[in-house]
Specification:
The structure is a homodimer. With about 625 residues, the first copy, chain A, is of the alpha/beta class. Chain A folds into five domains: about 25-90, 2-Layer Sandwich (Dna Ligase, domain 1), CATH 3.30.1490; about 100-200, ATP-grasp fold, B domain (D-amino Acid Aminotransferase, Chain A, domain 1, 2-Layer Sandwich), CATH 3.30.470.20; about 210-335, Rossmann fold (3-Layer(aba) Sandwich); about 355-495, 3-Layer(aba) Sandwich (Rossmann fold); about 500-630, Succinyl-CoA synthetase domains (Rossmann fold, 3-Layer(aba) Sandwich), CATH 3.40.50. The first copy, chain A, has 20 helices and 30 strands. In chain A, strands 1, 6, 7, 8, 9, 10 and 11 form a seven-stranded antiparallel sheet that branches. A seven-stranded mixed sheet of chain A has the order 20-19-22-21-23-24-25, sandwiched between helices. In chain A, a hairpin with a 4-residue loop joins strand 9 (about 180-190) and strand 10 (about 195). The interface between A and B is large, with 92 and 92 residues.
């Protein structure tokens, strides 16, 4: 299907068919037609140059207000002289309303999306618009309005009518094959709206369908092609990693050695395994994978030197792998591996990861460096660690599908640099959420420089961050800003599930203020305490303290019984999602009884280990993760 | 001087006196005057209702375009019927330009400020404006324009003319006692501008002058009033803190005891000391301070129960202290104290602070909790720790003045909740900067809730964060978002001074991308590497890596000689401010020689101690502090 520009009157006629109200116009090729049109519509009128080439009519003087036939004749002639003019549209004049912009376009990664915001001449300068992928729900639209700076003006007008208009676009865009549409402006009134100008392009939509195939993260037999007995080689490290699991059948492959560290070596030709880990120079990888077809169900390629490299051979090799992946699943290339922490299978080149603590958080990352960073920093329980690297075959949606069905995982923490098929990524996250799991996402490449760097890094195109962020909100994922927030948020979701608001209790007022400030300034939610709660807390605490949220308990908080009562009061308030307690040790050192803490989130400096509750070593970390989560729910 | 509203024609006449171009208008009380005015100006004209009571003329239908005398008569009559009409202004019609808003107002904390931004009907909805305190410099104005979303449109027009207009306001506002002014809109053209509407209020400006008096942070003799030998009392802790300094003369005061921990006690009547620390119940404090006048130069009041308390007595007590401070300097009340780390004087109730590491960072904080939080978390060298609490007398500007003259301090880290005299705060920071010291500021109360909480906490009014942030930028302070950033930024400024840009070198690309992303998305600056540098780095590194900023050195970075060459190349590039190196340990564990690091900032996980360079335990911390600093310089 060819890309086809509709003229203004054609665009409006099409919209009208779907019950969308437009400023109908009559296309006139000559003066007589214009005069007839004017007689039908009645003065005053607007005359606009009609052209498929002119995008901004006002800028070329292509919009005229006419009050009588004399005006009409003069303006018709002038408009027809504008370069590119194919005719003149004669249109009824409408009272000026709030100028809304409604746009539809196709993103290369995410497909059709809707943009709604402040229209008119300020559209491009102010950029006050909000985005969601199509189709949109009423809830999506309400969220979009909340994101607009100009919502104050818009909310006084007929937003219900606008919502109805926008909901119609779901079907309209799909059925009419709209790939681009600008309704700018749409005049919005106290009652109703009218689409004043419309520009539509129809054509063939990009196909985002993608087959999800099973990924193996629980192999029973693993070959290591390029196994080595030199401790400085990756092929040695991988064998060490795997050996920590005594039940795993390991098949080292190295034609020059009879055994490696006591394990006999094998020939590729004799293999029949679930997984083959390849630790060979890049130039040998393709032929090896060819040989492995039918002998291994999945190949994990540690080797680098593929599309991430600046050399042409790398790209050719990766293309060959992509073709081979029809017959064998491929993870990588350019990965350090994966760890199935539940089953203690460390299929990676980092032997220390054999001893990770088991838990319900899965980490799926495009970068191996970020995995190492996180696993060094956090003493947290994980279910799986999966590094995807170049993703010539196995990609995020495949791993999401695996995790969706996995009973051991409650939270999926995702580090992504760029996505090729954002729509499939979005769908995968939606499915995870629908299956009751939580998803936290960190996207690198918010800035232009990181974009280019990650392009080189994993050879993928990092799209516009705004579309990415909007789509994650739409999918129900918690979006965070850095790796520490990624894991902190995952830890809180694993422990507390959905968190809607935070009540803060601080021994020192300053700490509570800083925490409240971080949460609010990042768009998170502080609990609005009920009247009953406020009254009860006022009874517990002396009047020298601040007894709203954040609650400054001051030295009274060092009295365990008072503190216990405050916590109980807060927990019984249905407006309270979680309680965040902050304390930096200072004299007098009365001891708070540890059994006071049942389900609070605690910042205790210097860090104190407590049972049953999540303890952070900084206010900033606790508050930032809580901001990210409460903003989402 | 009374508050006086000028009428539109009076406002414009006044502006014209200063060479500011306005759409001059003729004030007409009756139809004859209006007709005469029209004859002088010539049609087409604009007629506007003239009234000191109507702020938004358009909203009441008070602006009319008239093309002939008949129009004029009809419109004159209609305009005069508008409630509040005192007459009609007749004005020449101007071509519509970019609608700029220029406003002047008086902030209760900071005094006169200028706001410039997008005018017209969008002013209040879009809030696209930028603020600076008056007077402004050309540099300030250029920065203001850069902050506007609508700068793209404005920059194509005659900004030079606008700058000249705005610079004239420095003198205008001062000499004419302008306390409020709206020039909205000012039409800006490709050539020139015209002030289309003007509303001015003159009156008496608030006086922000404040005497700076010497604060004593290096006492040689210290009394402790309310000293105790009960280890659970504050009066015991303070004596312990002071005793760590053997040279200090300590005078415990307690009428019920002969000695405390081996030191004989004294009567207040016999004292003659530099400093008296008061650890008594609130109700005894005022009479004690009265007695101390003439016997102590300065009183540090640890006791709480003053204006921060909800009770009326607290406010009365604080007012009495304020009066007494004419005769004795007072720090507090409601403070944990101060520590002069250089001279090892710990005048606080936290004995563990006697052993702080000496350095060139002074921490001045309104919250004692934040001081404890920071001193527990950071193993960093400080010159002074000063807690200001309620600030009934000694306030930020006094401490800034002390530090300005102090040779031991290079960086001043400030935690502030609210300021009463923001202008004096601003001036104090400017003076610190002018004396060559660096200032980092964390303001609590960005959000509304924190505002109210800090109001209770230290009884001060936290003003609009936007004015605060703008004034800090104007004063040359680095503005940060949380306590960790506060100290991290101070550490970097102490070590590296002004930092203009960052070059990132990462062993794992993902870490470099995350760092770059944080820096750029927060408005910090990444170094633009010179052609020469790029070429040299391409010669050092293989083509599989990303060799721009951030530089992905990959495994080549584990070769100490290559890494050294890269660092040297970067340091010789004048576009590079600092080099940030990132590494999360991963096999193969080749060792990087430690002597490679000369002046880099290093993130090495798990943290490695290195001589001579600043090491961070997270990418986030390094990148956020570098973002805050490079954004400022």
């Amino acid at each position: 299907m060819e890309r086809k520009f509709l003229m203004e009157h054609e665009s409006k006629d099409l919209l009208e068919k779907y019950g969308i109200r437009t400023a109908k116009c009559i296309f006139s090729r000559n003066l007589n037609e214009a005069i007839t049109a004017a007689k039908n519509l009645g003065f005053p009128l607007v005359m606009k140059v009609a052209s498929r080439k002119i995008v901004h009519k006002s800028e070329v003087g292509g919009v005229r207000f006419v009050y009588n036939e004399k005006d009409l004749v003069k303006n018709f002639e002038e408009l027809m002289k504008i370069r590119g003019a194919e005719g003149v549209n004669v249109q009824q004049m409408f009272e000026r309303g709030f100028e809304l912009f409604v746009g539809v376009a196709e993103d290369q990664q995410f497909g059709s999306f809707l943009a709604v915001g402040l229209g008119g001449v300020f559209f491009s300068a102010i950029k006050d618009y909000s985005i969601r992928l199509l189709p949109v729900s009423r809830k999506d639209l309400e969220e979009m309005f909340r994101e607009l700076s100009s919502r104050e003006i818009l909310m006084k007008l007929d937003t219900e009518a606008v919502i109805n208009l926008l909901l119609k676009l779901n079907e309209f865009v799909e059925k009419e094959n709209v790939i681009e549409m600008d309704l700018n402006p749409v005049f919005v009134y106290k009652k109703g709206y009218v689409v004043v100008d419309a520009r539509i392009v129809v054509g063939k939509k990009k196909d985002f369908s993608r087959e999800i195939r099973k990924v193996i993260l629980d192999p029973e037999s693993v070959a290591v092609v390029g196994a080595s007995n030199n401790p400085r080689k990756v092929g040695y490290a991988v064998v060490q990693s795997l050996r920590s699991n005594k039940n795993l059948k390991i098949y080292p492959v190295n034609p020059n050695l009879k055994e490696i560290d006591g394990i006999p070596t094998y020939k590729i030709e004799d293999l029949s395994v679930d997984l083959a880990v390849i630790c060979l120079p890049a130039e040998k990888v393709v032929e090896t994978v060819e040989k492995l077809v039918g002998r291994a169900k999945e190949a994990l390629i540690v080797s680098a030197g593929f599309k991430e490299a600046e050399v042409e051979e790398g790209k050719i090799r990766e293309e060959r792998l992509r073709e081979l992946s029809r017959n064998i699943r491929i993870i990588g290339p350019n990965v350090f591996g994966f760890v199935n922490v539940i089953k203690k299978i460390n299929a990676s080149f980092t032997p220390t990861f054999s001893n990770l603590k088991a838990g319900r958080i899965a980490l799926v990352s495009q970068s191996g460096g970020i995995c190492h960073y996180i696993l060094h920093k956090f003493d947290v329980g994980f279910s799986y660690i999966v590094h995807l690297g170049n993703r010539c075959d196995v990609d995020f949606p495949d791993v999401f599908d695996f995790l969706e069905k996995d009973q051991n995982t409650k939270v999926v923490a995702v580090y992504v640099e760029g996505v090729d098929n954002g729509r499939a990524f979005f769908d995968g996250i939606r499915k995870l959420r629908n299956s009751g799991k939580y998803v936290v996402v960190l996207k690198a490449g918010k800035s232009s420089v990181a974009d280019v760097a990650s392009l080189s890094h994993t050879g993928s195109l990092a799209g516009d961050y705004r579309i990415f962020a909007s789509s994650m909100k739409q999918a129900g994922a918690v979006l965070v800003e850095d790796p520490v927030e990624l894991i902190d948020s995952a830890v809180l979701l694993e422990k507390y599930g959905e968190i809607k608001s935070v009540a803060i209790v601080a021994i020192q007022a300053g700490l509570g203020i800083v925490a409240a400030d971080i949460i609010e300034s990042r768009g998170g939610k502080l609990a609005k305490l009920s009247e009953k709660t406020l009254k009860e807390i006022k009874n517990i605490l002396p009047p020298i303290t601040f007894r709203e949220n954040p609650i400054d308990v001051s030295a009274s908080g060092l009295d365990s019984e008072k503190l216990r009562k405050i916590f109980e009061t807060l927990w019984s308030d249905e407006n309270v999602g979680v309680v965040l307690f902050c304390y930096a040790e200072a004299p007098p050192v009365w001891i708070i009884s540890e059994d006071v803490f049942k389900k609070e989130i605690v910042v205790w400096i210097p860090e104190k280990r407590l049972k049953d509750v999540v303890v952070f070593d900084s206010i900033e970390r606790a508050a930032k993760a809580l901001a990210a989560i409460t903003k989402c729910f």
